[in-house]
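Shape matters. As here.
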Amino acid sequence: MSISISRRAVLTGAGGVLALGVGASVLDFRTSAEAYRRYVEDQRAALSGPADAHALVRYATLAANGHNTQPWRFRIGPDEIAISPDIARRTPVVDPDDHHLYVSLGCALENLVLAAGASGQGTNVVIGEDGQTGASVRLSGTFAPGADDTAMFEAIPRRQSCRALYDGKPVAAEDLAHLKTASLVPGVDLVLLTDRPQIDAVRDLVIAGNDAQMADPAFLRELKDWLRFSPKTARETGDGLYAAASGNPALPEWLGRTAFDLVFKAPAENEKYARQMDSSAGVAVFSAVSEGPAGWMAVGRACQRFCLMATALGLKTAFVNQPVEVAGLRPQLAAISGLGARRPDIVLRFGRTSQVLPFSARRPVEAVLVA
């Protein structure tokens, strides 16, 4: 979910008092925005040469995750790094069965494996208790990654969920094949929808899901809790959905929260999603063979590999998971995707764009480590 709050709508809806609030904080915002940019740039500094465990964890935290909640904890041991769920960072309204939480763990797990391999370390992934307690990566011996793994590793600092309009041009068949090959993970199927009627059908489900979610006050409260309107707050928390990263204006926190209540409405969001879907080259749908935390982590690994290879190929991706999050829409999405009775787990749109948006922040490595 991304939000669309234009500066004009804020000023129109909230009146002259809000306009004065925006004008008075221009200088502060420039300073805060630059501090945010430097903070994120440091977090995404490229690894070079052998990496220690802290550096590997930093790369793991750059993974995709729901609402940028970063629901993970890492434990560093002798020749091993374990990743476990951080239940305190659940989003129980949008993700009542912790599906997205475990997909997020899988995304971080894949980053960790790729980063370890790129630093020359062999890895063995061990899933604990059907995945409920997370997984561990055991480091042993030496490893020489292949060309695809190297390309995906190098894409880790550049990958982002880009909620911009794409150019609508088809992706070459060779690149589509490369995406499918790179995303191969046992127990996960990937369906690519590139015909316009298929994309349009998914678009309609995204809009239907958005309508359902925005009619739910609990969903709106939970979403608002994870919104970060100002660069200062986004840097200080190191988490959440930063407005500027979604292409919206950065605002003082008090003003952004007022604007959210005034102008964040279903018709405008539906129009935005329609434009975004219409501009996309295709849709990727991931589905686990077996449901549950272990299967969802496998989906996360496949999804992360897809996003990294897309980045390496000059493509952008963005999540449009409303047809997964609204349970009543899953059978329709499964039918469009040819999944039969299986549950679709993750939905991404992809394409190309020249628009550049800020990256999302991450918490410091120290904040996600446990003894």
